[in-house]
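Input chain follows. Return structure tokens only.
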Amino acid sequence: MSHILFAWELGEDLGHLARIAVVAKELVARRHKVTVAVKDLSRASLFFSGSDIQLMQSPVWLPRPRKPPLTKTMADILAYRGYGTVDGLTSLVQAWSSLLEVTAPDAVVIDYAPTALLAASRFNIPRVVFSNSFSFPQPGMPGQDICPWIPAPLNVMRQKERQIVDNINTTAARLGFQPVHHFSDVFKHEAAFITELPMFDSHRHYRQDAHYVGTTPSGDNFETADWGAVSGKRIFVYLKPSRPHVDTVLRLLKNSEAVVRGYFPGDLPPDLKPETGGKFQLSNQPLNVEKSLVEADGAVLHGA
């Protein structure tokens, strides 16, 4: 029996928990010990309630400075998630190191947890990346422009990357792990599994050892959308209240002839309240996406 630690540090939404839960439960079924350190414990019970999986809170960066005007590379994301200062990053690596010392795993499985990767490298713990391609830049590569449709000077992007690399390497000298050349080197690993199709991976031409395993199920414990007997094209929706123009999109859907079902984790304006038995019905509880899509004609998603 091995002890496997799953780590989630950055990112939002339920996809991280859904991915982790599928593999974690399978490992438990095979009689392994599993600990899951998650960023957001408030929704963990949706996926792990009643299981033999030990849950822990991930070390995360709580200060929320103003986001940069434009997020062009992952270096911009890391800058306001603890990597913007040496002292902040040192504290994060130390916290993850303490968690690894307490749990003493035989391997760590990473879902968008770069600092867990750094900490694991201090103890030579095998690192397995299990995530989508966005949260797993190819080690050894410069930062990729994640908003190429918005112009920005290349030298500014590279200057931010150099700042992050310098902070990582100063922290490495303090705490005793290997320095990096690119910030993507943080994501060095012993094995990698990408939960999507190669066609959606902008790094696909540079991957050398990653395995594409497709999407993971969203969870059989969630209900399936009830499409009813109402006539019209069936549109499944998964949108978030924080996205720009989301109310406009929902009003267009409600005023259309389509039958709309889906998940919206927020409060709807009065004119968008679900219609009991009508065409427009959104739930504030997660739904089983795979089963709900079986009878759908199309989907409107937030870009996960």
